[in-house]
Each structure stands twice: as structure tokens, then as C-alpha cells.
Fold this sequence. Notes:
Layout: E1 6-10, H1 14-25, E2 29-34, E3 45-48, E4 51-54, H2 65-73, E5 80-84, E6 87-91, E7 94-97, H3 101-105, H4 112-127, H5 139-147, H6 149-154, H7 156-164, H8 173-185, E8 195-199, H9 204-216, E9 220-223, E10 229-232, E11 238-241, E12 248-250, E13 252-255, H10 259-265, H11 271-279, E14 282-292, E15 301-304, E16 313-316, E17 330-338, H12 343-346, H13 349-356, H14 360-363, E18 372-385, E19 405-407, H15 420-439
Parallel strand pairs: 1-2, 1-13, 2-9, 6-15, 13-19
Antiparallel strand pairs: 3-4, 5-8, 6-7, 10-11, 11-12, 14-17, 14-18, 15-16, 16-17
Amino acid sequence: xxxxxxxxxxxxxxxxxxxxxxxxxxxxxxxxxxxxxxxxxxxxxxxxxxxxxxxxxxxxxxxxxxxxxxxxxxxxxxxxxxxxxxxxxxxxxxxxxxxxxxxxxxxxxxxxxxxxxxxxxxxxxxxxxxxxxxxxxxxxxxxxxxxxxxxxxxxxxxxxxxxxxxxxxxxxxxxxxxxxxxxxxxxxxxxxxxxxxxxxxxxxxxxxxxxxxxxxxxxxxxxxxxxxxxxxxxxxxxxxxxxxxxxxxxxxxxxxxxxxxxxxxxxxxxxxxxxxxxxxxxxxxxxxxxxxxxxxxxxxxxxxxxxxxxxxxxxxxxxxxxxxxxxxxxxxxxxxxxxxxxxxxxxxxxxxxxxxxxxxxxxxxxxxxxxxxxxxxxxxxxxxxxxxxxxxxxxxxxxxxxxxxxxxxxxxxxxxxxxxxxxxxxxxxxxxxxxxxxxx
Length: 440
Ligand SMILES: Cc1cc2nc3c(=O)[nH]c(=O)nc-3n(C[C@H](O)[C@H](O)[C@H](O)COP(=O)(O)OP(=O)(O)OC[C@H]3O[C@@H](n4cnc5c(N)ncnc54)[C@H](O)[C@@H]3O)c2cc1C
């Protein structure tokens, strides 16, 4: 019998883990390294009162079919709940419900004809299937033309500013279309309230099941350490160097880490591919999580359209998944996307908290610091790929120019926006590609 081919995977987020699961199922000898002490990357969770919770707020849309199928395949379908969600919009000192056409048409922050324009533009985009032309125009240009400057800047423009900061005016229309499309395909009918998915017990339930599935199929998954260099040998094989250990040799290597990290790991990559890797950037995120003894509001997802506030969304997890799952505690995320040179990205935790808390009274005048029993501040450098014009032409290929070296990361998810569903798709795709190449 011929020897089993050996595959190394760098990065134990959802994409790397899915690839490890698929390739070990297919009979390859797989070793995966995750630098952090735990698996799951951006979707990972940690212990809180009565259970576990994500570092960064997470839910699934009904259009997230790839991860839903995987969850069922792993035998944990009974843990996946589809729960009603509600959305609010905080502007001019008031929380407005924003759960569909009716709420939009009565939203008093805009004159009626602007509301109508926003509604008509949204309804139009929900019907558009051909996204290709939207690669060539910015969201700002297209939306301003379609709905007028005032309606744009009070609604979608404010959201783009919140998410993309100094890049907001460069974001391609295709990214915005993707968001509308996702929300549309996530509803069974426009009249039905939106239901979002959540694995009861946290996304770690899914992550643990993929890890277990991969290990049962023979994969070696290591957390708490990562390679420092990937080097191609004269015979085409790959040496993976781990500090303090002898290099290990593999037939193929998959990098499932952000592009700048991948570029550093593989110094032999030719310049043109390296340039591609480094030309695509990501927004970072700073997310505060508060543990409260009571609810802050009755809204799950509240977009903040108040430029004086330092965060841009309040996501009250326990208005989505009941506090009974957490011994009655309430969990509220305060979210902010930013450029990594923004002072908030490196600000000490107590300063972030001191700057955020006074603003919570704007949302609930009764809010008091004594409601908080614990808080955390989490940061992610590669939180959101920045999708600018003609992005499809600039995505680095999964097959790098070096034979046997592959890349699978969130910058390659397109035209949809990044998310756990698409990382599962990425893991499935890269596993099929590597299998095909190794058997060719
Ligand atoms: C604030 C926020 C909210 C989100 N909300 C949602 C949501 O509601 N729904 C949803 O579906 N998605 C959401 N996402 C996105 C989703 O979590 C990610 O798209 C997905 O988890 C990315 O998985 P990945 O495996 O592609 O990458 P990552 O999760 O980034 O995994 C990459 C892994 O590589 C590891 N690594 C880096 N360098 C090395 C090295 N040298 N050696 C070894 N390992 C290394 C990292 O530690 C990390 O674990 C959110 C993301 C953020 C930041």
C-alpha cells in the first residue's frame, strides 16, 4: 500500500478546521496548528455565567446553508435554534424599531419621500441577481444617485462610515448589494419576521464537533503553537518549522490565516503574489462585552446613528438567546470597526470602558455602572476584508505560484461578505482542490 500523503494546515479557525475534517475523512494524514490556545478563530467562545459565549457576537442567517448542513452532518442539528430577532436604529436620542418596510416608512428621522426612496432602492436591490456591474461602482456613488444625498447619509451612508471608516467612500456597491441580498434570502417571506440561527451553548458547540470529527478521522490538531516558516524543499515537498522542534515534512500546506501573516510565513512566495496578498486590507474590530444584571433595552441588534458615540452598534445577545441560558445574566456587546492605527485599537481596557459607558445612558437613561458585574474588551486585526472596486480581479488564487502551497482565508470570500458559513464553504473548496491536485 502506498504511503498516505501528508497535509499541513496553518490556522484553526472554521475554514482550517473544516479543511482538516474533510481531508482526514478522505484518508490524508493531516496536521493542523492553531497559534491561539483554543480553536475557532474569530468564531470562538469562552466560559461565562452558566455557559459559553462568543468573543465576538455571532448568529447565522437562513441563507447560511453550508454551515447548517455541516452542523447536521456532525450530528448536532438539535443544538441549532432558529430564534426571532429584532433590529433597532438609534438616532436623535431615540430607539426606532427597524424590522421591515412598515418600520422604514414610519421612520421619522427622514422626510417621507426620502423614506420612500430608501424603501424603493432596497426593494429593487432585493431583486437584482447579477452583481457583476456593481463591482465597478462605489456604494456611495450608486446609492447617492439612487436615493439622494440626504437619505444616503442618514441611513446606508452612516452604516458604511461606521463599518469602514476612512475607506467608506471606496467600498464597492457589490459589498452593499451582498448585505441586502443576504437579508432578503434569509427571510422566508417579506411579511414574516426574521429568524436567525444560533447553536445553543455557543459556536464552540460547532467548533468542538468539527475538532472531534477531524480527530476521529485521524487528524492531529494542535493548539497553542504555530509554524514560524514554511519552506519548499528541492523535491517539491514542504518543511514546516515550529520553534524549538525539528521541521516536519509535508506534501502540501494550506495557510488558513490572514494574508499578511501568510506572506510572512512563506518567504519564497514570488513578489507579484506577495503584492496581491498585501494589497488587500482588513478593518479591525474592538468589541466590548458587558455582563449586566438586567436588560439594557429590548432590541437584539441596534445600529447607532449618533456620531458622538464611540461605538456603532449595540448587540444585546440576551434579547436573542434568553438570559435563562446564562443563569439570568444579560450580555451586551458594544461594537466598533476601525483602522488599526485608530487609538481605540490599542487603548488600555479601562480607558475603552471609561469612554464607552457614559453613552449607554443615551440609550437607557436609567443605566447605571452598578448594573455591570464583569466586562471584557476583545480585539481582532483582520475582522473585515475591505471590498473596493474590481475586487474579483485582485483576489489571490487559492493555488499559490509555489506547487503544494495553498491559501484559504476570508479575503477570498466574494461576492458575499465574510462569515462562518463562507469559511465552511472555503474549507470544503480548498479540501476538494488539494485532493484533486494530490491525486492528479
Ligand atoms: C466582530 C465580528 C462579528 C462577526 N459576526 C459574525 C456573525 O454574526 N456570523 C457569522 O457567520 N460570522 C461572523 N463573523 C465572521 C466570522 O467569525 C469569520 O468570518 C470566520 O470565523 C472566519 O473564519 P476563518 O477560519 O476563515 O478565519 P479566522 O477565524 O480568522 O481563523 C484564522 C486562525 O488562524 C490562526 N493563526 C494566525 N496565525 C497563525 C499562525 N502563524 N499559526 C497558527 N495559527 C495562526 C488565528 O489564531 C485564527 O484562529 C464575525 C467576525 C467578527 C470579527
